[in-house]
Amino acid sequence: MNVDLSSTRWFKSSYSQAGGECVEVAFLDGMVGVRDSKDVNGPALVFTPRDWDVFTGGVSGGAFDHPNG
Questions:
Q1: Residue 9 is assigned to a structural domain of this protein
Q2: Neighbour-count burial of 55, counting CB atoms closer than 10 A to its CB (0-12 exposed, 13-18 middle, 19+ buried)
């Protein structure tokens, strides 16, 4: 799927510190974009709202926690 992200308004978490590694998120027309804040011209992931909800629920629920710590 090709989505034009050139005029997209991206934002970081309020927990992000200046100069720190972070991802940026954009709510698009019916989609959610995610990109690396250090590579703003690089690739972005694009989720459907349902897939975004499943992903963020998994993050909140610990589904992606490292098994060793």
A1: no
A2: middle
